[in-house]
Amino acid sequence: MISKVGITQELANYFTDLKYEDLPLEVVEMAKNLILDSVGCSFAGWSAKEIDQIIDVARSVGTPGKSTVIGTGERFSLLGAAMANGYLITSITACDVYTPAHFHATPEIVPVALALAEETGANGKELITAVVCGLEIVCRIAFSLDNQEFRKKGWHSPGIIGPMGAAATAAKLLKLDATDSRRAIALGYSQSSGTFASWPTPTVKFHQSRGAAAGLISGLLAREKFEAGSEPLDAPDGGLYVTYAPGASEKVVKDLGTHWEMLNISLRLWPGATPIQAMLSAFLNDKHQTFPALGNISSVEIRVAPRTYNAHISSINPTSTFEALLSFHFVAAAFLKNGYFWIDLVSPGKLEDQDVLNFAKNKVLLVGDEKIPIGGVQVKILTVDGQTIELKEDYATGTPKRPVTSEQLERKFLQASSEKITHKASLELLALLSDLEKLHSFSDLFKMLQPEKAL
């Protein structure tokens, strides 16, 4: 039964009262994994071509402050740090994804949590709890929507729903009461924006960065008692379900405290669009599988669900790093030539590798197949001497059906952080983040996020 106080107020009531001690161990571990992954992705994010443009604008938003931007010793304003870190997390297309809604949550949630934890002097348990609040709220709201209709209209989830979760995270760290927390979520909704008209440009990733900034502003305004609509989700005039897509609001609050929708978030082990993770999983999950050299391969056929095919068939000849990370053709060719896949293989110089480009264009065929489940893949490699290699994955590594191991996540973190800090510093930071709940002060952590201090 829907509460008489309204869905948004019921959410605010529950999460305002939520304590670290209320969190199941698996929820705490998921939050810690996502924070760890976000920090690693942020270090690697500096390799994106467009990052200087984002950083320049983030630097100019407000006077220099005391908020840490991951990977630089420079301090930004609260707003600038949230915006910069939000983009850094998503920059190399390797952060989390909530696949039921194709939604990336950490770029909106984690930057706000880090900025306000540094500002307020929160401890590790408070940070984890605030991140859980934001993640669980965005996942529940996304789950409640008719996501096919939502996507059909061209809406991009992180920019629409993300600000509400980020606002809830801000409210938790600012220790707002339930009324002001509801205001924060409503203010986040009022800043919802973002469509797939920007695909496949980096602007779709900016939706996530802006979502973090919007959530931060929402929390700060709510602290000032700035009033907002009482029910952004169910409101008959302009509410989420009448404006963006139909939904079932009762799903948002169903089984609060016993069911945790954020556990359905997936982690990506490699840079690349979400559907490409299944292909890379197929290439790499069998450690005994060897592949012939490019010159000994006559064709590569990649079968995916029709919806995946439609979204990625235009990226055969990528002209930018982001387009390359969306391209089954390019990623398959780059992997088969090099035996691995990471962000260095889509750097500007590598995008001009004629061996890879020619192979992707002439030897790789992407096929839409209704028999392939969403998120799955079938690969058939034919060699010039008539041999066949067949690979199949229904679920990418990192999805709830095939969770990442601690070893896999740590290996990704060390590889990603090596873009900015030494291996020794990466190991020290990994140890600190692995025991995040034990931190009473973030001073050491924030120092280690600055490469000048870590080297």
Description:
This protein is an alpha+beta fold. The protein has two domains: 7-269 and 411-454, 2-methylcitrate dehydratase PrpD; 276-393, 60s Ribosomal Protein L30, Chain: A (2-Layer Sandwich), CATH 3.30.1330.120. 51% of the residues lie in helices and 7% in strands. The protein contains 22 helices and six strands. The chain has helices at residues 7-17, 25-45, 51-60, 78-90, 106-120, 124-144, 147-152, 157-160, 162-173, 178-190, 203-223, 240-243, 250-253, 276-284, 306-312, 321-325, 328-338, 354-362, 406-417, 423-434, 443-448, 451-454, and strands at residues 67-68, 75-76, 297-304, 364-368, 377-383, 388-393. The protein has a four-stranded mixed sheet. It has a two-stranded antiparallel ribbon with strand order 1-2. The chain is globular and about 70 Å long. It starts with 6 loop residues before the first helix and ends with a helix.
List the helices and strands and how they pair.
Blueprint: H1 7-17, H2 25-45, H3 51-60, E1 67-68, E2 75-76, H4 78-90, H5 106-120, H6 124-144, H7 147-152, H8 157-160, H9 162-173, H10 178-190, H11 203-223, H12 240-243, H13 250-253, H14 276-284, E3 297-304, H15 306-312, H16 321-325, H17 328-338, H18 354-362, E4 364-368, E5 377-383, E6 388-393, H19 406-417, H20 423-434, H21 443-448, H22 451-454
